[in-house]
Write a structure and sequence with these properties.
The complex is a heterodimer of chains A (318) and B (344). With 318 residues, chain A is of the alpha/beta class. Helix content of chain A is 36%, strand content 18%. Chain A is built from twelve helices and twelve strands. In chain A, the strands form three sheets. In chain A, strands 7-9-8-11-12 form a five-stranded mixed beta sheet, sandwiched between helices. Classes of the chains: A alpha/beta (318), B alpha/beta (344).
């Protein structure tokens, strides 16, 4: 099934087993969501559990936080990650900090789902990769799936967590297909996925860039180990270090801009903990450091040519 | 007036005693701040009748989501003084381990939400709590408080709209003390040196109408009146939300970092008719619950009691520094474990 259907299946499973799970957001009810992730759930679970909201991201997020404070499992959908910022105060100051500032008196078991990154030629306001805003906010768990199977398992694990999760759905992968069980299953949120073992270099990537990395490595016969982070914060340091110590060469690929991004934190952590094992500088292939241009998006995102240039530079580094 | 309340004279007298205690505690906590025992403090003077009235009105099943100037309401609800003062003085016994500024209470087991500093940051959460109450068919209603400045925020308008759309069982309670730090709420005479700038031209209580529910304006200087109106609103909230605008006056500075002499003349000096302590005394006397002898003896008792309390709490130990890294996540991330080594 597609990633959209896998996400729908996860929500269906979660709502079936637990009546505290409630969906809310713009157009998630009658319309089933603009990407159809919540399709059919209104008919099955009713208006009290699948709520169309007024057009206000601040309200959707704050409302969900309140529900979570009272023991419900709120799963708000923000239609595009680009529109989430009017609710950013709620995310940073309330959702992320509640457990800490009350020393656990209140927790926020809430999963904020939102499509992110490019793939639909959406220009500056339907294409953003804002993950670094969330990964740099203490208290948030930031998860991003790359396959339909992961999308379902990671979403169900996120729903069970007693902490707020920013669940970033790569919209460019919404309609890729894969095997997905109908039944309930979970995936460890604190464990990265080694997609392919290899010896010559480690490629660390996640979300929307995973298929590109896999295809590029396969097509060019690169003996690379590919790590899909799955969770960006807290990321799985052990899987990364084990691989880096084996290969000694590291490439980080993400669609978000490079400066001050997730790749920077990964590179710094690897340098701090394993620089003696490195045979080459840590390289990054990322989106460009500009807003996403409408007409020229294809030149903005990482591509095979840029990845192979970096791979060859790493492999040839003396 | 007593006939219209469903509480006893004894309850009202106890409420008055709490009001006096709040007045004395406030002065002494402000003093503790000046002496360096509190790095920051938010004065309460002028709000006491609102606080006590709200505290009296809240019943066991109701949920209270306060803002940062609601000390007396929490006390009047029956929260142990030790819990509240441990929070204010950020002692090792604070249930939140001294992580937040004074008056930022979070007492979940008493149905009190976690006070947040950014103005109005709790209002949308309060609507979600109200929804959860109705979804779970819980008894009681939600009441959330905020200042007049909060009504300028997007949070206020979004929360009011959500409450109207979903017809939520909640009371929005605006403690209008007429100033958002230095900016007057309305372009009217309230001692502001300059009335060019203001928070709003439209009456706050009337803003409810645009969101499809009722708003009322009440006198916030008499706790019996605040109690009556708030209790009524909480009971009616089962049929939909209500906005209350309670008129009071911030008799002190906004915070210990503020000097109101820069921007206004104090039009409600302590001891004047609109001072909530004086206004409440008058009501209580009219009801034959209070006389001058009792006023004096309660004053003496509370003066002594609050001195002892502040002396005690300002010297309580602070939380153990090793607790600082606890409880960020359900499961501690590897980097927090590493940072434990940085706290020596």
């Amino acid at each position: 099934m597609t990633m959209v259907k896998a996400l729908n299946s996860a929500l269906d499973n979660a709502m079936e087993r637990d009546d505290s799970v409630i969906l809310l957001g713009e157009d998630v009810g009658t319309d089933g969501g603009v990407f159809r992730v919540t399709d059919g759930l209104l008919n099955k679970y009713g208006k009290e559990r699948v709520m169309d909201t007024p057009l206000a991201e601040l309200g959707i997020i704050g409302f969900g936080i309140g529900m979570a404070m009272e023991g419900l499992k709120a799963i708000p959908e923000i239609q595009f990650q680009d529109f989430l910022y009017t609710g950013m105060d709620q995310i940073i100051n309330q959702m992320a900090k509640l457990r800490y500032r009350t020393n656990g008196d209140y927790t926020v078991p809430m999963v904020l789902r939102t499509p992110y990154a490019g793939g639909v030629h959406g220009g500056p306001y339907h294409s953003q990769s804002g993950e670094a805003y969330f990964t740099h906010t203490q208290g948030l768990t930031v998860v991003t799936p790359s396959t339909p199977y992961d999308a379902k398992g990671l979403l169900l694990s996120s729903i069970e967590l007693d902490d707020p999760v920013i669940f970033l759905e790569p919209k460019r992968s919404y309609f890729i297909k894969g095997e997905v069980p109908e039944d309930y299953y979970k995936i460890d949120l604190r464990k990265a996925n080694v997609l392919k073992e290899g010896d010559d270099l480690t490629v660390i990537t996640y979300g929307p860039s995973v298929p590109l990395v896999q295809n590029t490595v396969k097509k060019n016969n690169v003996n690379a180990e590919i790590i899909d982070l799955r969770t960006l914060n807290p990321f799985d340091i052990n899987t990364i270090l084990t691989s880096v110590k084996k290969t000694g060469r590291v490439l980080i690929v993400h669609e978000a801009p490079k400066m001050f991004g997730v790749g920077a934190e990964l590179a710094a952590t690897i340098a701090e903990k394993a620089i003696d094992y490195l045979s080459a500088p840590i390289l990054r292939v990322t989106g460009l450091d500009i807003p996403v241009p409408f007409a020229l998006e294809d030149y903005y995102v990482p591509n095979e040519r840029r990845i192979m240039e970096a791979v060859n530079k790493l492999l040839n580094y003396q | 007036m007593i006939e219209k309340t469903d509480i006893s004279k004894e309850d009202l007298l106890n409420a008055y005693r709490n009001l006096v205690m709040e007045r004395f505690l406030d002065k002494k906590m402000l003093n503790a701040s000046k002496q360096g025992f509190l790095p920051f403090y938010i004065p309460l003077m002028g709000h006491e009748a609102i606080h006590i009235g709200i505290g009296l009105a809240i019943r066991n099943n109701d949920f209270f989501y306060p803002y940062y100037r609601d000390f007396g309401a929490v006390i009047e609800m029956g929260i142990p003084l030790d819990m509240a003062l441990s929070q204010v003085f950020a002692t090792e016994n604070d249930n939140a381990l001294g992580r937040s500024m004074p008056d930022h209470f979070s007492f979940k087991k008493y149905n009190i939400g976690a006070v947040i500093t950014p103005v109005a940051g709790h209002l949308t959460a309060a609507t979600g709590i109200a929804y959860a109450y109705r979804y779970r068919k819980k008894e009681g209603s939600i009441i959330t408080t905020f200042g007049d400045g909060a009504t300028s925020t997007p949070d206020f308008h979004v929360a009011m709209n959500f409450a109207g759309v979903y017809n939520l069982p909640m009371v929005f309670f605006c403690e209008n003390n007429q100033f958002a730090i230095s900016v007057p709420t309305y372009p009217t005479e309230n001692g502001a040196f300059d009335q060019t700038y203001m928070e709003t031209r439209g009456d706050i209580y009337k803003k409810a109408e645009a969101y499809g529910f009722k708003g009322i304006r009440i006198d916030g200087t008499d706790f019996v009146e605040v109690y009556r109106q708030t209790r009524k609103a909480l009971e009616n909230a089962k049929n939909g939300p209500v906005l209350i605008e309670a008129m009071s006056y911030r008799m002190g500075p906004h915070s210990t970092a503020d000097d109101p002499n820069k921007y206004r003349t104090n039009t409600v000096p302590e001891g004047s008719a609109k001072d909530p302590l004086i206004a409440s005394q008058k009501t209580m006397k009219d009801m034959d619950i209070l006389d001058d002898g009792m006023i004096k003896s309660i004053n003496d008792e509370m003066d002594k009691k609050t001195t002892e309390l502040v002396n005690k709490y300002e010297r309580e130990p602070k939380p153990d520094k090793h607790t600082m890294l606890d409880n960020l996540y359900e499961e501690e991330p590897w980097y927090i474990s590493e940072e434990r080594g940085d706290v020596q």
